[in-house]
Write a structure and sequence with these properties.
single chain; alpha+beta; 4-stranded mixed beta sheet; 7 helices; 4 strands; about 15% strand
């Protein structure tokens, strides 16, 4: 009798052990549930909800700088930013972004851009250990203003616009040119820029100054 009871218990234990097919089916059901849950989570928070967002305080100056660069590089007027078609396009593509006004572009953005450009030129010239070449010349613009301009050329051949000065009220004399060169040397010394030589055209006052 005891042997029959033991055999009966063993048979029950064997029946309770799941077969390989049952185990696989359970695992597949788990994967399907996990996949369904993940898909549902993505549907609840689609990625497109985060494409357009208001700019942060740190992003606004950078966006204005990029927009300013785009306007200038394409030769567009500052009024481009207030053009109805321009505004409509940006509202459609990036509704959370406000374009800077023409007044802002010609004011605060232009000043900030100029300051950043000057700093970039100074740093590039300072980092040229071989020294830069100072090339200067004078010309008249469309307003008949006589200008004296200076360009720094690095040892790698990169041109850096250093500046221009209105000399319409001054006579083009050798003494004036020497004074301009001294000003350039003083500015370069203040910014720790090494000028290795000066280059100009063959005008008499420039040749005498050299």
């Amino acid at each position: 009798m005891q042997n029959l009871t033991s055999n009966f218990n063993i048979i029950q234990e064997i029946e309770r052990v799941p077969c390989e097919n049952e185990v696989n089916e359970v695992e597949n059901n788990k994967r399907v549930k996990v996949k369904a849950t993940t898909t549902q989570a993505f549907r609840q928070a689609p990625l497109t909800n985060y494409i357009s967002r208001p700019l942060s305080t740190q992003d606004i100056p950078h966006f204005r700088q990029l927009f300013f660069n785009m306007v200038v590089s394409n030769g567009l007027p500052f009024s481009f930013t207030e053009n109805p078609e321009t505004c409509e396009l940006f509202r459609f593509c990036i509704p959370a972004v406000n374009l800077p006004s023409a007044k802002a572009l010609s004011g605060s953005v232009l000043k900030a851009t100029s300051k950043n450009l000057v700093n970039s030129i100074i740093i590039t010239a300072q980092n040229d250990l071989n020294g830069v070449t100072a090339a200067f010349d004078s010309w008249s613009n469309i307003r008949s203003e006589h200008l004296f301009g200076v360009v720094f050329i690095t040892s790698e051949g990169k041109s850096l616009t250093w500046g221009a000065k209105d000399i319409s009220s001054e006579r083009s004399k050798t003494s004036n040119v020497i004074s301009y060169i001294k000003d350039i040397m003083e500015q370069a010394h203040q910014h720790q820029i090494n000028i290795k030589c000066f280059v100009s055209d063959s005008a008499g006052e420039y040749a005498a100054a050299r």
